[in-house]
UniProtKB/TrEMBL annotation:
It comes from Paenibacillus wynnii. PANTHER family: DUF3298 DOMAIN-CONTAINING PROTEIN (PTHR37841:SF1), GLR2918 PROTEIN (PTHR37841). InterPro entries: DUF3298, PdaC/RsiV-like_sf, WG_beta_rep. It comes from the Bacteria. Pfam families: DUF3298, WG_beta_rep. This is DUF3298 domain-containing protein. Gene3D superfamilies: Fervidobacterium nodosum Rt17-B1 like (3.30.565.40), Heat-shock cognate protein, ATPase (3.90.640.20).
Length: 652
């Protein structure tokens, strides 16, 4: 590389940010982008750029701006030593999708080895998942709590709610339980109290509260209860009787109404009669706003969202604490965004309101619409900006409701969020990180290296906002014709066709993706998954398809290819699966009498040690069970396997 000084670029300011891009002439245009360099430059410092030490024509573009508070200071630990912010990042690998952590420069500092990874919390711990279980790591990647739990919630007031097969408990920051027993349900600590409930043999549920040490300071005695807020909590004593209690369980006020909701800014939503209209009470039980709404949400910033539509309809508005209307109750939905802003939603397609809303931004104090540009999703304001997306792009808006100066702007639908010094972008189901001046410092890889010359390349197909597919292209197959046939078939199996016309006439949405499930020797197993959601349905239907490809000859294997010709593999596999259903408690969810055996072309996949057979949702079990899967070690069926066959030899 050659270091080249940039002379005469001093803007006259003491501190400013210099943004540089280097381009190379490719014979037709300046399209060979060689990267960006940017740094805070003091007026006295040397200014330079690096270019490759190769012959050619190069162009340097630059711009400068004043040094503003663009970057946040890194976190500090208890010894006031600077701690580098780490960011969770997903990697597509030949072992599948794994998560690791990157630093502010986009370099991997904790290698990808987790099934999922969350942001580091203020205590220096992060929740990670491994083999379907949750644990905790520190900033060096070391395990602080082994991944043995079914769930770990973020820490609150020095404690985390954790669950395992026995129930819920509180854990301290050293990974030690602080509760003496497990609970049927447990909420995070709020103001020194954690809401729990326990089930009685009669089937009745009673609520109580733990303190930070796990002691039951308010025993289980309430029919319903809420988290503490503003030093109080609303509990249900019995039918038609509610109370406001303090953190010691003392009753401050009692309310004799069919329903009383949580306290917010001194007011409580309530119903005066059974199934009647909603209004708001003061803490002393007097009526502040007469019942007149079909639903009434908690107050925030001196305002509350209410609904006036009958029969579960949507006619939402915004009121102040005197019950005065700020925004008329005529919107399909209203979101309080914070920082005195709200989003007003109306159906994209009036005859199909279930297909989502378009939003405009309004001033929550005056009700004035600030920007009527239609947005398809709006998130809460943070530091004067809110993440939004429209039909084409994801970006920030400012408090005027217009596109903010803060980059980035990314094609696709998703969210932007602050992550320390960086901005995290989760757009079209892919993750990337940008610095505060819009430079991309890391993005999810689109090439999965296998073994030279083989790799899998990700391609994106998004013909309209309701259809998104990532499909694989296998590279490295020597025969060009075979390569084309393999990739054409993968494209069709990924449902890159049949997207629908888009717009109001489209009847469903669809998302599809893939991952490498197994790779060994010449066998590549790809998992193709999808989710089709018919608009207006209760839920969509997931799909899963494993394809087994021999990278030498391009052959796609079926289940029968694993076994000797003429062998009774169907009967044997059916018997094994039947015994697992009958004897293994993990399959207790299978519908009685629904399993009648496996088919000759049963959905399956293989790895180094076993054959796996699976069923689609509803085939033999409830939808919530997903894809019931049965593992069959090769040792149990070795006499039936064609060990000299092409399939077996492709990975042995």
């Amino acid at each position: 590389m050659i270091r080249m000084r940039l002379n005469g670029l001093d803007s006259g300011q003491e501190d400013y940010l210099l943004h540089v891009e280097v381009w190379k002439w490719n014979g037709m245009s300046w399209k060979a982008w060689l990267g960006q360099q940017q740094s805070f430059i003091r007026g006295e410092e040397e200014q330079f750029v690096t270019i490759p030490a190769e012959p050619g024509l190069y162009r340097v573009d630059y711009s400068s701006r004043p040094w503003e508070a663009l970057f946040l200071v890194d976190q500090e630990d208890e010894n006031n030593l600077q701690v580098t912010k780490l960011h969770p990042a997903p990697f597509k690998l030949k072992e599948g999708m794994l998560w690791g952590y990157i630093n502010n420069e986009g370099k991997t500092v904790i290698e990808p080895r987790f099934e999922y990874a969350e942001e580091f919390q203020e205590n220096g711990l992060a929740i990670v998942q491994f083999k379907g279980h949750s644990g905790l790591i520190d900033r060096t990647g070391r395990e602080k709590v082994k991944p043995i739990y079914s769930f770990i919630a973020p820490f609150s007031e020095g404690r985390a709610v954790v669950s395992d097969a026995k129930g819920y408990f509180l854990m301290d920051e050293e990974g030690k339980p602080v509760t003496s027993k497990r609970y049927d349900f447990l909420n995070s600590l709020q103001e020194g109290r954690a809401l729990f409930y326990t089930g009685l043999e009669s089937g009745k549920i009673l609520y109580g509260y733990l303190d930070r040490q796990g002691k039951e300071v308010i025993p289980a005695q309430f029919e319903d209860a809420s988290d503490f807020k503003e030093g109080t909590a609303v509990v249900k004593i019995t039918s038609g009787e509610f109370a406001l209690i303090d953190t010691e369980g003392r009753k401050l006020h009692t309310y004799n109404h069919p329903y009383v909701g949580s306290l917010s800014e001194g007011l409580l939503p309530f119903q005066e009669t059974e199934n009647g209209k909603y209004g708001y009470l003061r803490m002393d039980g007097t009526i502040a706003i007469q019942p007149q709404f079909t639903s009434a949400l908690p107050f925030s910033g001196g305002r509350a969202v209410i609904n006036t539509a009958e029969n579960y309809g949507n006619a939402y508005g915004l009121i102040d604490k005197q019950g005065k209307s700020i925004i008329p109750a005529r919107y399909y939905g209203i979101q309080q965004l914070g920082e005195d802003r709200v989003a007003l939603g109306t159906p994209i397609y009036p005859d199909q309101p279930y297909r989502g809303s378009r939003y405009v931004i309004a001033d929550a104090e005056t009700g004035k619409i600030l920007s009527d540009y239609p947005l398809l999703a709006v998130n809460n304001y943070d530091r004067g900006v809110a993440s939004v997306h429209d039909a084409k792009e994801t970006y920030f808006i400012d408090k005027s409701g217009n596109r903010a100066a803060q980059p980035p702007v990314i094609p696709g639908a998703g969210t932007l969020s602050y992550s320390g010094n960086l901005i995290r972008a989760d757009v079209d189901q892919r993750t990337a990180y940008y610095n505060r001046v819009g430079k991309q410092v890391w993005k999810q890889n689109a090439v999965i290296p296998l073994r030279p010359p083989y790799s899998v390349i990700e391609r994106k197909y998004k013909p309209n906002i309701d259809y998104l597919v990532y499909y694989p292209i296998v590279e490295g197959i020597a025969n060009t014709e075979v390569s084309r046939e393999v990739n054409d078939r993968l494209r069709k199996l990924s449902l890159v066709e049949g997207a629908g016309s888009g717009g109001g006439s489209q009847e469903f949405s669809y998302t599809g993706d893939f991952s490498v499930a197994f790779f060994r020797k010449n066998l590549l197993v790809l998992e193709l998954n999808g989710y089709k959601f018919p608009f207006g349905a209760a839920h969509g239907m997931p799909t899963r398809n494993y394809v087994h490809i021999n990278l030498r000859n391009g052959k796609f294997y079926e289940l029968r290819d694993l076994f000797k010709p003429g062998s009774k593999y169907v009967e044997k596999l059916s018997e094994i699966v039947g015994k697992q259903i009958a004897n293994d408690p993990q399959y207790s969810y299978v519908f009685p009498g629904s399993y009648t055996g496996v088919s000759a072309n049963q959905p399956f996949y293989v790895d180094e040690q076993a054959l796996y057979l699976y069923f689609a949702p509803y085939d033999i079990a409830p939808y919530a069970a997903g894809f019931p899967t049965f593992r069959i070690p090769y040792a149990e069926i070795m006499g039936l396997i064609s060990t000299e066959g092409d399939f077996w030899q492709s990975y042995h």
